[in-house]
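Design review, sub-item: ligand-bound model
Attendees: FS, YL, KQ
YL presented the inputs for the fe (ii) ion complex:
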Amino acid sequence: MQPIQLFDPASHTYTYVLVDPLSHAAAIIDPVDTLLERDLALLQTQGLSLVWTLETHAHADHITSAGRLAEHTGAQTAVPAGCGIQGAAMQLQHGDLLRFGSETLQALHTPGHTAGSMSFVWRDHVFTGDTLLIGGCGRTDFQSGSAEALYHSITQILFALPDMTRVWPGHDYHGKTQSSIGAEKSHNPRIAHKTLPEFIATMEALNLPRPQRMDQAVPANQASGLPHEASPLPPLVRPAEGYAGDVSPQLACAWWQAGEAVLVDVRTDAERAWVGEVPGAVPLAWKQWPGMALNADFDTGLQAALAGGKKAVLLCRSGVRSVAAAKRATELGLQAYNILEGFEGDPDTEAHRGRKGGWRFHNLPWRQS
Ligand SMILES: N[C@@H](CCC(=O)N[C@@H](CS)C(=O)NCC(=O)O)C(=O)O
Ligand SMILES: [Fe+2]
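KQ shared the predicted structure:
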């Protein structure tokens, strides 16, 4: 069973999709923001159900699409615990196992390129991120990088895997796609047969230019690629393109309770069951994404719910799907508002994806099921 390897020519990044052939459950490693639509289309055309998005580290050269992929698909985000990435569903520790369908993947802490970097082992494959590249390795001159730690990670952790293990790197700048542990052990010019002092001297002599997007990419990746700035709350109504506007949770609730609006909860049944329901809201899961055929159930459900001519206020987990749903409602001729920050914004901490606000945290009507 091979992983699906995808490439971003702009940053030379490899993204991997791992599939359980029995259940079609899938995991994705290091997805890239600009290629979100490509990846969603792949999941759809292959009939895959994304369970995990995984990061090997907080990238310095491109921005992840993990947060938005999770919003579109209902996948959970998993990130290395040492990378300062806030708001993920799971902070991974060395040895942690992640399951998708009947498949299991193991996280290995392989610091050096960054202090938190991880590699992932699945079947006889290892996804090395920027710890081990083909004929190279990640640089160690920023983000708490350490040539000594990298030497240990490669020689003691990765080279301890069986020689036939396929190596799938996080980048390649020379058109190579895959390698093996045995080949890298014998031929990698930076580390094969090198002592630690020789390796440190090689790394110190690299003098690579700073990644061009580093100042933008690292903070964005530490929020899983979701918008970082706190939205001003409570805005009343903020105009928006393609739908009637963005509205604060408080105002949406006031409209709803006054009977002026229908509250539509576009989260999935599973999310409502796990996280908390909004009693009285109309449940209509938004399962559309770019390139996917229209969801007729959503359209007919929405038209029926709004037959009385009220406006719609749309709620999702964090305010991404509700925007897409509000645009669709507008196309259907309805007056639709997106509820800012969705259900799960957090007024007390910057940790929740750097956002503030949210239905649940303003104690608007909800209950845990
Ligand atoms: N030139 C690229 C950055 C390339 C780069 O520094 N890549 C990192 C991975 S994030 C690396 O470790 N490169 C190792 C190498 O080129 O040997 C940019 O401006 O974004
Ligand atoms: Fe990197």
